[in-house]
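Exercise (ungraded).
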Amino acid sequence: MLIFKNALLKIKKQFGRFISLILIVALGAAFFAGVRETSSDMIKTLDDYYDKTNLLDFRIISTMGLTEDDLIALKNLNSNYLVEANYSYDTLINDEATKIYGITQNINKLELVSGRLPEKNNECVVLDGSYAIGETIIIDDNNYNDYIKNNTFNVVGTVDSSMYIYTNLGTTTVSDGKLDNVIFINKDNFNLKYYTEIYILDTIAQEKISYKDDYINQISILNTELKKLAPIQETKRYEQIKTDAMKKIYDAREKIAQEKNENEKKFTDAKKNLDDAQKQIDAGYLEIENSYKELENKRQELENNFKSQESSLNDSLNTINNKLTEINISTDNIEISINELNEKINEINNLLSNIDISSNEYLFYNNYLNEINTLLQNLEEIKNGYVSLTSSQNEWNASYNTTLNSLNENKANLDQKQITLNENYTTYNEIYNTFQSKLNESYQEITDAENEINNLEKPEWYLFDREDNSGYTTFYESATKIDSISAVFPIFFIAVAFLMCLNTMSRMIEEERTEIGIFYSLGISKSKITLSYVVYVLTATLMGILIGLAIGYSIIPRVLYKVYNSAFMIPTLNTYVNIPVCIIIIEVCIITMLIVTIYAVNRNFKEAPAMLLRPISPKSGHKVLLEKINFIWKRISFSWKVTCRNLFRYKKRIIMTLIGISGCTALLLTGFGIKDSISKITELQFNVIQKYDSILVLKNETNTINNEINNFLAAKNIDEPLYAYMETMTFYANNKNHNVYTLGFANTNIDNYFNLTNEQGEKINLDDNGAIITQKIAKLLNVDIGDTITIRDNNNEIYVLKVANIATNYVSNYIYMTQEYYELAINKINFNVLFTNINNTGKAIIDSNYFSSIQYTADSMDMLNDVINSMNNIVFLIIGFSSFLAITVLYNLTTINISERLREIATLKVLGFNDKEISMYVYRETIILTIIGIVLGIFFGIGLNYFVLTVAEIDEIVFIKDIQFLSYIYTFIIMIIFTIIVQIITSFILRKINMIDSLKSVE
Amino acid sequence: MAFIEIKNLAKIYKMGEIEIKAIENVSFTIDEGELVVILGPSGAGKTTILNILGGMDSPTKGSIIVDGIDISKFNRKELTNYRRYDIGFVFQFYNLVGNLTALENVSLANQICKNPRDSKETLISVGLKNRMEHFPAQLSGGEQQRVSIARALAKNPKILLCDEPTGALDSKTGKMIIKLLQDTCHKTHTTTIIITHNAIISQIADKIIKVKNGTIESVEKNDHPKTVEEIDW
């Protein structure tokens, strides 16, 4: 009971000291536990998230898609495996590379953030933070139908996916290779005949903590099984594809042959019919031709006939006419001649009637009359001959015309028939040609297919595990970065805290030497005396640890986790109390405190009780080294001389003070140093090294500098754009792939847009003999100028580059090359980007149709600044804790300093020193020690900062390890301010020191 | 008028409801250059008187006039100046600063004074000519007390207050210290007040003030003070 009372009294007596002891322990424990626990909390939180959403262990894709058979084979591997097939389609939406996934039920389950899941085929959900509910998404690709049923989707919900926890979504096969967005639609919305991917999840591995060895070992079993299964399924699929194709070709060929046979007979028959018709027509023509000839012949014969008849008639007529002329008969017309003859006959008859019949005259006239009658008779005959000829001619002519008309009509008929037939021939030819070309086409197709089959490569399975998910791995690296900081920082912290406790306790026991002596001489056992101190220490330590652990486990992980919320889409942190670590911390603290206390107390028991009652014989003063340097010593004022003497009086105290102050200074400086290292990065990277304001992405790649574009840009006051080809590739170092941007420039001189310098800050230039790589690549691959490096592109093609120079760079990795060297070492290139100084005329640029997009440097800066600003949380935590520790340590040290010299100070008061002089008497030492401590601490800080930053470096970012001048100033000022604050507090303590104490005997 | 005039001095400590009277109705006077011994047993109240006289404490009641100035109503700062310029204090346990040499210990005091005496001369005057560069731990008790006296004297104080100056010393050394105080008092005419429970010492005083139970028992003027050699422990 007495012991506890005594301990309680001790607490009461120097409450400030007790509180500072608690605070120091609390700070150390909080920082140690909190910072250490953060990464494991983060990993556990993420593991819970992965378990809840059933994040896949392996994703299998195949060069030829996957089948139901593959799915069954995988399901048959083990009943512990969850297997699910899915479809995906990489395409462009608003020029953004987008991956469209089917929504899976069992693996990679989505976490709905807002809205609902799609019900119809024209609905989709998107990753939270991309599109908004209600927006409509339209696929740019016109051939979307090969993959999915429709190209327009309404956003009905936003989701989180454990596959996509990082703002960097990974790679894709479209656009520039960087995936910009992911959307999810119903599985049955896909048009694909085969699955694009199969997910597999080992439920036993799921029970292990992700990232940890247990998990990795468990899935390596699955990995082995999959690797065994892959060739089997690959061959199966290959054979199946081949057989299917061959059978198809065979069927096609058979069908073609059959069709050919059938159609050819049809065509022959048709041709024959056409030819027969032609023959008939030809015969008809011939017949008609003959009839024409016959008719003509007849016509000529008859006409000759008529002509001869006419000429013989004419001859007879002429003969008669001559006779008629002799008897004065007109010969102009036969009818007139006949009439005249008849008149003559009548005349003669009249004459004869008057003349005797036997007269000569009569006889004469009678003979004459006979003669004329004969003439008349002949003439009548000729006249009839003419009439008969004319009627015969007329009759012929009528018959001729009839016959001719009939013939012409027949010919016209034939002509019509010929035209129709000709048309039929044309139609026939057309059909026949079409048929023939179709046949040829089919033959070609078959031949092509055959070639294809002959060249068919075996399908290949690609296995992707979680490590291939950039979000999964980046998160782990980020989380373990805290571990790497926590490996150094808290230990440093704990060390300072521990030393301070040790100092406090040993001092306290020294002060209470007489009390110990009294108890001891009163016969109270050593253990009981020791116990009272142990109780005191344990109370302080336990309270400190408990407060520290409470803060450490609840606040610190949350503060640090905030940093990661900006770059990752991750659930709220679950904090855990790590009982074993708590126990270890408590055990270690208690055991060390016990050892220190018991040792310090027991040191006193070595002396006899009587000796203990006497004061420790005072240590003899020393002259300090400085006194031997007379010319300096003479110039120092008396009070400073006293200070110098005092300073070196207790070496232990100096060391303790220096360790405490320099430790806190180092911690503070490191805090500022980390801030410097990250805050300058943006400025240096985007204003000093990469000076361009934007990158224009060309719509159509060009292999020459395009004057049209240049003129267009010149009209917008943008001169000399830098043409380049840019691609994302990877290099392999430290067991993982790192991204690198490869650039091939049209010009050797890129000074307008890039300022490349080497480590010494000297400018370096591009040439055609090699590539300039950035420092991180050189560091990771451990190469120097003149060495070669290996990089690979998206198609896993490997290229070897010669390192011409190494450039200072802080964010991402770049390889700079001239066009010539790029084409020599990698591939022929077409320029796809332009580096310019455009910073605000974007709309007009995009409207020009030359460019598909603009990447503004300012945007990149903003993004980086977001990350950096959030990183400041760690810095503030460190600075805050260090400051708090610093102030506690300073307070602790000063109070110890005072309590050690209580009597001396009281004496000085009696001697008439005023408050200021007394304070200064104490402060001068503190100030000198503080300044020395700060200077030492700054040196420690530079080293600590370098160490912490080296250990904590993130892959994508190079930290600047130089501490800014201002940070030294800040650290110095903060430490001085703390010193002043502590001095103000202690000045009150000094005022309260009672002069009467100086009259007491020495304890 | 006397150099120091104390009237109806009282110091009452309040502990809750209870009032503890450390001293009450204390009145006496001391002339300039007098060697006064305040004599009394432990707990009689002599230390309280010393504290008030030394400017380390203020009385609850009464006045204390030193060289015509009432110091009983002095504030903290005035008291500091009073101690600084008017009082030289000799401690029972010497209270030397351990890591300063004898000379430096003396210098420590006289650097804050208006008209200090020379430190070395003061040390020589107390007989420590050859010990000036020694640290307290290297000096004997008597020597340490001499340094303490030298420190007090170097300030050239109006009053030299000595709290049981021989309390921690053997009789021989004690005698030497008393002799030093007496000689100094006579030589420098510094008003010297020695507080002690040792009645023998009072024989050398010009005035003996006996304290008992918080009040003054008697104030005796000693017209024939003995020299140190004459007294016997």
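Further reading is listed at the end of the chapter. For now, observe: Residues 213-326 of chain A form the longest helix (114 residues). Chain A has a mean pLDDT of 84.
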